[in-house]
From TrEMBL:
GO terms for biological process: argininosuccinate metabolic process; L-arginine biosynthetic process; urea cycle. Its main location: cytoplasm. It comes from Periweissella cryptocerci. Residues 3-163 form the Arginosuccinate synthase-like N-terminal domain. The keyword Nucleotide-binding applies. ATP binds at residues 7-15, 115. This is Argininosuccinate synthase. The gene is argG.
Length: 408
């Protein structure tokens, strides 16, 4: 029998995929990556895959690699798809496929399978990475190719003795990693329905958050957070800590109507407490340390990078080139930002950089300590406006229009 490597999560889609692939004639190697899914028992998920019929069940601890190689670029780039989504699910897909292709080669497997539907973005993300890393690898997508509805999946699972942590009354589809949690389907599919309390798991409602704010100092080195309140931490551990702390203050809830890669709109519920804090703090420190032209140009690159990640083009020459620009800008993003966490909001209230601050209090002040050469301003204004002044003197475009208005 041919061997196939399945991107396994233990959820409904990938659980029913195992017997389906077995019926199709494959020996299934189930692989789950631990990228920081909160509350997940990896041993139980590993056993479940074997119980359902996988010939091998493999768990890979990839939290640190995920944080350092995939989340880190997003922090440095302030990358938010459509200005709201911190790219939670999109980030883990290229890493998952990288590991699956490696395992496929080690086990002489001829195919890779995933549990994505035909409506989602992940099918593109998985398969684009597979094509880039091994174009000869066959691809199976049971949920998409068999055209299962959620109800049909559940019926198939019950018929094949597949244990699934889901019921027909609440068919949420959830994906999670250390950068956040994505939730869709069920009652959330109607955008007029407010998300119920059980749609959230990482955050409390803002009105239920503590009545007193919490202040946290986030230290950055070359654009990446390295410490909380002067306690140095690995990036993955720091994100986990902030998810817990910020989530307890109701921070990081996102209710978003999103434009999917496949061309449809979807309603998504995201929770990203650590991302909300770190992205706000990082941008605030950049405002202190980046030169004006760099600060004004960088958002253009940020948006393009966010689109590339969302649209399954992590493995591309353009992504590599843009990321090199981002890395260059981050050499000066060093310092500390004091964040106020309160009732669903993460606010930067103070910041400093002992080595790279471009803020000069003696230039900014309106007191007697002012060192700004105000006499130079008059000449600067004359030179700054010279091109427009000469143009107007020659063409009289605006002056004639203004005189006409005055006569009327």
């Amino acid at each position: 029998m041919e061997k196939i490597v399945l991107a396994y999560s233990g959820g409904l889609d990938t659980s029913v995929a195992i017997p389906w692939l077995i019926e199709k004639g494959y020996d299934v190697i189930a692989v789950v990556l631990d990228v920081g899914q909160s509350g997940k028992d990896m041993d139980m998920i590993q056993q479940k895959a074997s119980q359902v019929g996988a010939v091998q069940s493999i768990v890979i601890d990839a939290q640190q690699e995920f944080a350092e190689s995939y989340v880190a670029p997003v922090i440095k780039a302030n990358a938010m798809y459509e200005g709201e989504y911190p790219l939670v699910s999109a980030l883990s897909r290229p890493l998952i496929i990288e590991k699956l292709v490696k395992i496929a080669h080690e086990n002489a497997a001829t195919a890779i399978a995933h549990g994505s539907t035909g409506k989602g973005n992940d099918q593109v993300r998985f398969e684009a990475a597979i094509h880039a890393l091994d174009a000869t690898m066959k691809i199976e997508a049971p949920i998409r190719d068999f055209h299962w509805s959620r109800e049909e999946e559940i019926d198939y699972a019950l018929a094949h003795n597949v244990p699934v942590p889901i019921g027909k009354a609440s068919p949420y589809s959830i994906d999670e990693n250390l950068w956040g949690r994505a939730n869709e389907a069920g009652i959330l599919e109607n955008p007029w329905n407010q998300a119920p309390a059980d749609a959230y798991a990482l955050t409390v409602a803002a009105e239920e958050a503590p009545d007193n704010p919490l202040f946290i100092d986030v230290t950055f080195k070359q654009g990446l957070p390295v410490a909380l309140n002067d306690t140095k931490m690995e990036l993955a551990d720091l994100i986990h800590e902030l998810n817990e702390v910020a989530g307890a203050h109701g921070i990081g809830r996102i209710d978003h109507i999103e434009n999917r890669l496949v061309g449809i709109k979807s309603r998504e519920i995201y929770e990203a407490p650590a991302a909300a804090v770190l992205m706000t703090a990082h941008k605030d420190l950049e405002d202190l340390t980046l030169e004006r032209d760099v600060a004004h140009f960088k958002p253009i690159v940020e948006q393009q990078l966010a689109n590339l990640i969302y649209n399954a083009l992590w493995i591309s020459p353009l992504f590599d080139a843009l990321l090199s620009f981002i890395d260059e800008t981050q050499k000066v993003v060093n310092g500390v930002v004091k964040m106020k966490l309160f009732k669903g909001q993460a606010i930067a209230v103070a910041r400093k950089s002992d080595t790279n601050s471009l803020y000069d209090e003696n230039l900014a002040t309106y007191t007697s300590a002012d060192s700004f050469d105000q006499e130079a301003a008059q000449g600067f204004i004359k030179m700054w406006t010279l091109p427009g002044t000469v143009y107007e003197q020659v063409n009289h475009v605006h002056s004639e229009a203004n005189l006409s208005k005055l006569k009327d």
